[in-house]
Design brief:
Organism: Mycolicibacterium fortuitum subsp. fortuitum DSM 46621 = ATCC 6841 = JCM 6387
Radius of gyration: 16 Å
Structural class: mainly beta
Pfam families: Cupin_7
CATH topology: Jelly Rolls
InterPro entries: ChrR-like_cupin_dom (IPR025979), RmlC-like_jellyroll (IPR014710), RmlC_Cupin_sf (IPR011051)
CATH superfamily: Jelly Rolls
Protein name: Putative anti-ECFsigma factor, ChrR
């Protein structure tokens, strides 16, 4: 697609198009054995992160989804929300106001998106 022949207006060169590798971001330990690689944050506070949970790690307390929902895709391993196990390839939508206790017995990598911050 072009805009009056201006290919740079669309696709990977469009204004606002962003890419980042987890290798380019220092991990932030948010709980013992749980690290976050921030990848993107929008003007409205929306953000995308990759979260790694080491084998045996458990979030300290309840992870409350506020102000908005949390959407999780299990990239590898098995994620546990404190009740259920979710294998790689699973998508979870946790509505605003819900909570869970992130953990993993064998370790996992998650892609997490917060559409409202």
């Amino acid at each position: 697609m072009t805009n009056n022949g201006d290919v740079a207006s669309f696709g990977p060169n469009a204004p606002g198009y962003v890419w980042k590798s987890t290798a380019d971001v220092e991990p932030i330990e948010v709980s013992p054995g749980i690290t976050v690689h921030p990848l993107w944050q929008g003007a409205n506070g929306a953000k995308a992160v990759v979260t790694t949970i080491a084998a045996g790690a458990v979030w300290d307390g309840e992870d409350l989804h506020d102000p908005g929902p949390e959407e999780v895709y299990v990239v590898s391993g098995v994620f546990n929300d404190g009740v259920n196990d979710y294998a790689a390839g699973t998508f979870l939508h946790a509505p605003a106001g819900s909570w869970h206790i992130p953990q993993s017995t064998q370790g996992c990598v998650l892609f997490v998106f917060y559409p409202e911050g």
